[in-house]
Amino acid sequence: MTPPQVIVKDQPVYSPEERAQLIQLAHQAIESALAGRPLELKAPSEHLSQQRAAFTTLHLEGELRGCVGFVAPMYPLYRTIAETALAAAFEDNRFPPVTAEEAPRLKIEISVLSPLVPIHPEEVVVGKHGLVVSHHGRRGLLLPQVPVEHGWNRDTFIAETCRKAGLPKDAVLHGATLEAFTAEVFGE
User: Fold this and answer.
1) CB-hemisphere CA count at 13 Å for 61?
2) What percent of the chain has pLDDT over 90?
3) Which residue of 23, 34, 107, 151 could cross-link 59, Cys pair, CB 3.0 to 4.6 Å?
4) 131-166 per-position pLDDT tens digit
C-alpha cells in the first residue's frame, strides 16, 4: 500500500524541483552512510537554507521503516532532511538499522512543519493538524497524515497522541499541553 500524498497547506511552499532535491538528498545521506563515506552538504538554494523543522519518514514495501524529525527548527532545511533521514534509517529504536539491500527500495516522505501553536481539543482538524502532547517531561507527536492513514476521528487522534507520550488517553483534560502544527508533506 502506498502512503497517501498529503499537502496540508493551501499553497505548496516548495516547488516540485525543490521537493525532488530534498528527497534525493535523503536517499544520498542514507547511501553515503551505508558506504562509509561522508556526505558533502551544500546549500542547494537560499530557500532550502531557511531553518525549518521537519520529519523524514521511510517506507519499505508500503510499511513504515523509520520516522525521525525535529519539532523545532535547528538547522537549514536541507541539513535537517539529511540529519533526519540518517536518524530514521539508523536510529529509530522501533526498527533495526536499514541495510544496504533495503536502501534502494526505500520510499521517502518529508513533512516540513509550521511552528507549534497551542490548540483546544475541539479545534483540532484531522488531516490538517499534527499534534504534540506534553506533560511532566513526557512528549508525544503525531504528524497530520497519521490519523488520515488510520481512519481516526479527532478524539482518537488526540488519545493516540497522548498514548504516544506515555500518558493516559485523556491527559489533555487533566493538565497536559496540546499544541498543533501544519505540515507540507510530499514524497515518492
Assistant:
1) 2
2) 91
3) 107
4) 999 999 999 999 999 999 999 999 999 999 999 999
CB atoms under 10 Å from CB of 27, counted, come to 17
Contact between residue 73 and residue 17 where contact means Cβ atoms under 8 Å apart = no
Q: For residues 26 and 56, give the distance between their C-alpha atoms in angstroms, rounded to a whole number.
A: 8
| Grid coordinates of 176 | 497536559
Full residue range of the structural domain in which residue 155 is found:
117-182
Residue type for position 73: P
Residues 64 and 124 in one domain: no
| pLDDT, position 11 | 74
Judged by DSSP in three states, 58 sits in strand
Same domain (yes/no): 123, 75: no
Residue type, 173: L
Of the three residues 113, 143, 163, the one that is the final residue of a domain is 113
pTM of the model: 0.86
Domain count, the chain: 2
